[in-house]
Amino acid sequence: MIQFESVSLGYGDKVVVSDINIAVPEGKTMVILGDSGSGKSTLLKGVLGILHPMSGRITVDGDSVGDLDEKDILLYRQRIGMVFQEGALFDSLTVGENVGFWLWEHTDWPDDRIEERVRTLLRFVKLEDVIDKRPEALSGGMKRRVAIARAMAPQDPKVMLYDEPTTGLDPFTSRSICDLIRQVQAEFRVMSLVVTHDLHDAFRVGDLFSFIHDSKVILTGDRKTIEESKDPFIRTFLST
Ligand SMILES: Nc1ncnc2c1ncn2[C@@H]1O[C@H](COP(=O)(O)OP(=O)(O)OP(=O)(O)O)[C@@H](O)[C@H]1O
Ligand SMILES: [Mg+2]
Question: Which residue owns the Cα nearest ligand 1 atom 18?
Answer without folding.
Answer: 39
